[in-house]
């Protein structure tokens, strides 16, 4: 029991990120196979930003995703921020 608790304490962050990632992939796989409308991340993102009907929504999504990707790339490569 002590070894298990020590392992969890040392790896809490990795366990949480891994659990979140596994949950996301399972949820997304179920959503892809059941073929209901508006249940995948892509469909909800398009709906949220009104990608199909709004040029402003498309532009905002592009800026947010591009900016986030650029920041993450710099963050990983330069080990800062």
Structure, explained:
- With 81 residues, the chain is mainly alpha-helical.
- It has helices at 2-10, 12-34, 41-49, 55-78.
- It starts with a helix and ends with a helix.
> Which structural class fits the helix and strand makeup?
mainly alpha
Question: What order do the helices and strands follow?
Answer: HHHH
How is the biggest beta sheet arranged?
none
Strand content: under 5%
Keywords:
81 residues; 4 helices; mainly alpha; single chain; 80% helix
Summarize the structure.
With about 80 residues, this protein is an all-alpha fold. The chain has four helices and no strands.
Question: Layout of helices and strands, plus pairs?
Answer:
Elements: H1 2-10, H2 12-34, H3 41-49, H4 55-78
